[in-house]
Design brief:
The longest helix is centred in the C-terminal third of the chain and has 19 residues. Helix 5 packs across helix 6 and helix 5 crosses helix 11. By secondary structure, this protein is of the alpha/beta class. The strands form 2 sheets. Strands 7-6-5-8-9 form a 5-stranded parallel beta sheet, with helices on both faces. Strands 2-1-3-4 form a 4-stranded parallel beta sheet. It contains 12 helices and 9 strands. Bound molecules: phosphoric acid mono(formamide)ester (CP).
Length: 324
């Protein structure tokens, strides 16, 4: 029997590696999968017989649970492993952990890891498909894909649309994946934050740099507001959280001065009252929970495509399984 075609290749490591067509294919494939989560019985036989390991070496709520829902709703068998409670605590390496899982005959590994490059390192050493669920400050591709899907739902074609990523760009894998994805889909991309939280040479990505949040809000159709990653800071990046909120916090008062209704995204978890005020997070311009809902459909699409599913058969596959 011939190998299934793989529209994404073997692995999903980052949006830097994908073409605009591949990104559009994932977003288009997610569309028919959205409906599955609205059903009373949220299960289709698309990945029946596939075994997926969720290997999470860093804390996660949204990504881990969303992958697990996506896998279960596609009828895959799933196993969850975290650093606590596994032999990683006894010093077993990432590759040894993965090779032992391989020996039990698995098909895919979804990995979150504190080290930038861990997902690619693993993908090059095991035959299973590897999906990056966030590696250090490198990339978080499925987060950016769900952000793109949510932006597309609300703004339509992203060509020429202006999206500003606000906050702690320096430590953010979400920022990197968003910048790659947005630029590839033809959006104009801005970044806004204190200089200490912007990577040196960020302009070379082809993004507009704003030092004042007021200017970013005036420019943008959408803001993707990032969390201050206090756990990755050794101090000295911002004078204080109160000061950060005063200068860069997104508030209703600031949004009211914008020439248009600016769409508000946040990947979570939020520091309410620091980078985003509660009335903005819960307000009419916020699509934060729609991002979370779209995360399940996007991850279903990624798993389906990596398993060799044909993009044009996703609608049929969700009724009858991979055979379409
Ligand atoms: N957005 C995101 O990655 O959230 P978690 O860390 O909760 O998965």
């Amino acid at each position: 029997m011939s190998e299934p075609a793989r529209p994404l290749g073997k692995d999903l490591i980052g949006l830097e590696d994908l073409s605009a067509d591949q990104i559009r294919t994932i977003l288009d494939t997610a569309e028919p999968f959205k409906e599955i989560s609205e059903r009373r019985i949220k299960k289709v036989p698309v990945l029946r017989g596939q075994t997926i390991v969720n290997l999470f070496m860093e804390p996660s709520t949204r990504t881990r649970i969303s992958f697990e829902f996506a896998e279960k709703r596609l009828s895959a068998d799933t196993v969850n492993i975290s650093s606590t409670g596994s032999s990683v605590q006894k010093g077993e390496t990432l590759v040894d952990t993965a090779r032992n899982l391989e020996a039990m005959k698995i098909d895919m590994v979804v990995i979150r890891h504190w080290a930038s490059g861990a997902a690619r390192f693993l993908a090059e050493r095991i035959p299973s498909n590897v999906v990056n669920a966030g590696d250090g400050s490198h990339e978080h591709p499925t987060q950016a894909l769900l952000d793109l899907l949510t932006l597309r739902d609300h703004l339509g074609d992203l060509t020429g649309r202006r999206v500003c990523v606000v906050g702690d760009i320096l430590h953010s894998r979400v920022a990197r994946s968003n910048i790659w994805g947005l630029l590839k889909l033809g959006a104009e991309v801005g970044v806004c934050g204190p200089r200490t939280l912007l990577p040196r040479g960020i302009e070379s990505f082809g993004v507009e740099v704003f030092s004042r949040i007021e200017d970013a809000i005036e420019w943008a159709d959408a803001l993707n507001i990032l969390r201050l990653q206090l756990e990755r800071m050794q101090g000295g990046f911002v004078p204080s959280l109160r000061e950060y909120n005063r200068v860069y916090g997104v508030s209703t008062a600031r949004l009211e001065k914008a020439p248009r209704d600016v769409l508000i995204l946040h990947p979570g978890p939020m520091n309410r009252g620091v980078e985003i005020d509660s009335d903005v997070a819960d307000g009419p311009q916020s699509v934060i929970l729609k991002q979370v809902t779209n995360g399940v459909a996007v991850r279903m699409a990624v798993l389906y495509l990596l398993a060799g599913g044909a993009p044009e058969r996703a609608e049929a596959a969700k009724r009858r399984g991979m055979g379409g």
